Amino acid sequence: MKKSLATFAGIALITLSGQAFSSEANEIGKKIYERAFGRGCGTCHDIASNPQLPALIKAGTLDRAKFEQVLREGKGGMPKALDEIMKNAAVKKAGLTEELAVDDLYEYLKNK
């Protein structure tokens, strides 16, 4: 009985910590999206004529690797964005690496 209770408590703790991490990552992704370049990604990407990032990600036409490539290199009218993302206060406060910051932004867009 004690062993199964301890197992259950451990699973619950892991689940809750995963949810807390997911929530924190989503919040950081949101802050990046709203504040990158000082005006936010949505300034361009929430306009109908520009790529709608959440729709592209949800449809599977913009995978994580391609998303990061565009952030690193830019594309068309999209400037290189990774340096700006790394300047974000939420990213700095959390001590994220470039890869984790991109993960948080990608996950936020996937769930937006």
Compact description:
This protein is mainly alpha-helical and 112 residues long.
Explain how this protein is built.
Helix 1 crosses helix 7, helix 3 packs across helix 7 and helix 4 crosses helix 7. The chain is globular. The chain is mainly alpha-helical. The longest helix is centred in the N-terminal third of the chain and has 34 residues.
Order of helical and strand elements:
HHHHHHH
What Rg do the Cα atoms give?
A: 17 Å
- Care to count the β-strands? 0
Measured distance between first and last alpha carbons: 42 Å
Q: Profile the largest sheet.
A: none
Number of helices: 7
Helix-strand layout with pairing:
Elements: H1 2-35, H2 42-45, H3 53-59, H4 64-73, H5 82-86, H6 89-94, H7 98-111
Helix pairs in contact: 1-7, 3-7, 4-7
Task: Supply database-style keywords.
112 residues; 0% strand
